[in-house]
User: What shape does this take?
Amino acid sequence: MAIVVRPSEAVHRFGNDVYLRIGSSNRRASPEEVATLYAERGGLRFDEAVRRDLGMDILSPVLVRKFVSLAVERGRMPQEVANWEYTQVLRALRAAFGSPTNAGVLTFSEDPARYISGADVRVVVWGGEGRVVDDKWFSAPLWMLVPQVVDYLYRGPLKIGWKVKGGTRRELPTIPVEALREAVVNAVVHRNYLAPGRTLIQVMPEKVTVENPGGFPPGVTPDMPFSKPRNPVLADLMYRVGMVEEVGSGIKRMRKVCQASGITFRFEEWALGITRVSFSRGSNDLEAKVIRMLSQGPLPTSALLKEVGVSRPTLLEILRSLEKRGVVKAVGRTRDRRYQLL
Assistant: This one.
């Protein structure tokens, strides 16, 4: 006899409890987790909710005009929309109906975090010795927020380097721009705004992580991604200005560009409360440890051996692999040879 239990988008209880499947184990959900489950699976659409507590004056007509102009330029809104009345545009975009919707606040208010908790993005940059070297907060309309965050990352912590190939120099970002931008877009568009917390980006010597409150929508997994936005109005608004696509192809594109750049891309954690993706310069924990050590300056193999805890042949194999992928390089003669990050 075969018993088939099909996936369900409802929240199910066993007695008075709700259980979660995390990895290979089960555990009882906390009251906060139960509330999050109902928010994610109970059909509550945060972005569609009309904010009767807010006036239309918090939305910026200037931002609406800029948004429409960009959407028309990208061919995702008809030209005649530019001549519509301000309120007509907001209704058509489901951004306001007498009062702003949450999607309207996130898109057309100059400081969304003032009205929606957790609408800002935090970027923490860690040094090789485990201390915070920079900690910044960003709050802006989402379609302007993503470029601000990505621009900061690539002008600072992930600044573009140079690689010589075939006698010419070309720019080579530490992490592919397209992949990291897609991760930031996903984090702010598809996050669960009903759950506490905010989008957090952490930059470490060996990897970059992007995390946001909320797991994948029911039925969607990293291995089987498809378009099922948690915030459909917000996703539509970001689509119109070219920030997202209609089909769930983002994860596939991220994997493809990372593979071509020698970057390991993976979902480090996928549970009820949080989704986290990482872009690692190392393909395993040992490589990551070597990169963290070299982030503090060039080191000889003797110093690396003391800390990494592997045999000399294993360490040399790790260094050769990192050299081949353009992560480290050896400088100096054999006796004085040191390894440094590119």
In short: The CA atoms of residues 91 and 278 lie 38 Å apart. Residues 121-280 form a domain with the Heat Shock Protein 90 fold (CATH 3.30.565.60). The longest strand covers residues 132-138.
